[in-house]
Structures are given as structure tokens and as C-alpha cells.
């Protein structure tokens, strides 16, 4: 490290583990290439249920470049014209590249959905095969699908066949639990069936979001895969992305919980990949302005009532770690109008700096683990490629999507 880099690092706003991480050197990393898409920096916003709707994607995009994926859209709900599904899949003309994550356990449905999305001008489609929600895995879907490689192959093949020039990627977990790892089979199948990349959340379905992500698994998949590998798990700071890529050799990073209530993380990611030292995060007054902007976007997209209901969870993530924020959050959780939000934010200390201790604090899922629910006899028929039954009526679809939103 040069003297100049050492001085910058000494003033760096980071956790101890990232204090001495070198910035990216010129030419050290390459753009993430997915067919005709070239993404720089090689950073992807993770699709997250109830989170990565158009308002949040647009906000993140304004802070930095990259690829911003929608929350998971179910094929059956989309094909049946479910109003909420269609809204969540929607975009605006200036969202480019437009990326949608899709889900189905039925090759026919997923193929038809991809064809319609391509007709709408979508630039990238991602298949969710990592969902650990019990209602999903208990029916043989989500992270249970890679347990049956031939079924996974049918799904990816159907998507690639109908996608034309649009790249198809797949996102998986390590497996069901440590005794049943599926990620290497998933990487092989994804490559054989023409996927453009595979993303690995380096935890099992049993782990949910507990413990540390297993970056060694990302490195193992990278050494075995014939297609680009994206690493996901524990990117809380921009320097974590550099460490992950150097440690694993992966082709890009997927950022999930680390950006909740911190959309400026994408600005910092763009800076470190360009070899520039990020400054300190915004102070509380600047964050309050971002919160107001975010609330306006949610209201414009969902309507006044639903938009402000959506904003309640975001107020927790934005204010996490600030002095006295617990009492404030209790009041913010009950807001019903933009005016109520504005009154509460007006009382904040605008000059309070972002707390260093909040950099690596989880802003979402709890620390519990689970025993993964699978259909009876599921593991005895791993060569079977028969799709499990998925919800078909509108009532079933809505119940299914509510369960997904909780996961």
C-alpha cells in the first residue's frame, strides 16, 4: 500500500476488517458480461421480496451503476393477470437495463412468462431457485428444485428457449442443509442448459440468513462452473465486495440486506471499483431527505395508503443504530400519511453522523435457522423431473405470494 493509500485508509469509514483493503487497481476487475449486457461495476442488487420494487430499484440506480433486479414474480400470477403481480413486474421507460426475477416450478408456465417479458422489452431474466420459505419448499419448489437436477434442467431449458437474445441467469443456495448440498449440480445444469450466469447465496436453506456466508463455496463453484459465477452473502460494505471477488475469483457480487436503508452503498461500490476512496456515509439530515424521497416514490407507485404502509419497514432500516432511534421507530411504524412522516423527521438532529457500529448490523431477516420442509418422499425420487403442483387459482396465488413476501 502506498503512503497516499495508507493515509486514505487511516481515515476510512469502515469496520476493522476492511480498514486495510486496497481499492481496485486499474484493470483488476472486468465488467460482468451477460450476452449483450456489459455491467460495470460488476454489482447486482439482489431480488428481495417486498423490497426491490421499482421505487427502490430506481433510488439505488441513481446512486450508482449496476444491475437492479425486481423482486420475485410468480409465473402463474403473471400469466393470469393478477393485478399486484403485474404491478410488481412493471417498470418505467427509463429503467435500463430492466431485470426481472421469475419463479415457477412448471416449465410451460416459466417459458411462456419469459416469452411475454421479452416481448415487453425486458433485458435480463433471473430464475429464483433459492427461496427457503416453508410453504414453497414443502410443495417441492424454491430451494427444493435443485435437489432434482433434471427438473431444474427442464426449467432453465424452457427459459433459454423462449428468451432469444435476452440473458437468463439462475440464483440458488448452497443446498437444503450441510448434509444435502446442491450448488455444484446446479452450476453444472445451468451451464449445460444455456444460462448466462449462476448466482450463489452462500448459505443453505436451513440457515436462512443465520451465521456467516460460506465464501469458500463461491470459490468452489467458480472453479467448477463453465459460466460466470456471482457471489451473494455478507456484502455489508463496499470493501466486502472487493474482498469477495479477490477471495473467490467470482465474476460479480450480489448485494442484498446490506443495502436496506442504505441505497448510497451502490455509490460507494462504484467508487471502490473505480479505485476511488468513498467518503463518510450521509448524516441523519441527508438520510431524512432520502427517506422523504423514497416515501414519495412508494406513494406514486402503490398509492397513498399502501405506499405509506410500505414505508413503515423502511423507516426502521434507515434509522437503525442512530441515537434514540428505537423510540422514534415505534412512532414511525404507525405513520399513515406523508405529513406524519415529515413531522417526525423534522425533529431529528440533522448533523448526527452515521454510526460506525451500524455498518454491519442486519436490517432484515432474523438470526434463526430452520428444518427445511420437503414433500413426503421427495428425496427418494431425485431423478424425477415431474413439476410439483403449484398454485393455480387466484386465491392460491395470492396466499402463495403473501408467504413469499414473508421470506
What CATH calls the topology of the largest domain is TIM Barrel
Share in β-strands: 5-15%
Q: Largest sheet, described in full?
A: 9 strands, parallel
Mean pLDDT value: 93
Percent helix: 40-55%
Q: Would you tell me the structural class of the helices and strands?
A: alpha/beta
Please give the alpha-carbon distance between the first and last residues. 42 Å
Determine the number of helices (DSSP H or I, runs of at least 4 residues).
16
Would you state the CATH class of the largest domain? Answer: Alpha Beta
Indicate how many domains the architecture comprises. 2
Strand order of the largest sheet: 4-3-13-12-11-8-7-6-5
Rg, Cα atoms, Å = 21 Å
Secondary-structure element series: HEEEHEEHHEHEHHEEEHEHEHEHHHHHH
What is the CATH architecture descriptor of the largest domain?
Alpha-Beta Barrel
* CATH 4th-level superfamily of the largest domain: Aldolase class I
Q: Stretches where pLDDT falls below 50 for ≥5 residues?
A: 3-9
Any idea what the shape is? globular
Please give a structural write-up.
- This protein is an alpha/beta fold.
- It has two domains: 260 residues, Aldolase class I (TIM Barrel), CATH 3.20.20; 70 residues, Orthogonal Bundle (Non-ribosomal Peptide Synthetase Peptidyl Carrier Protein, Chain A).
- It is built from 16 helices and 13 strands.
- A nine-stranded parallel β-sheet has the order 4-3-13-12-11-8-7-6-5. The chain has a two-stranded antiparallel sheet with strand order 1-2. Strands 9-10 form a two-stranded antiparallel ribbon.
- Helix 12 packs antiparallel against helix 13 and helix 13 packs antiparallel against helix 14.
- The protein is globular, with a radius of gyration of 21 Å.
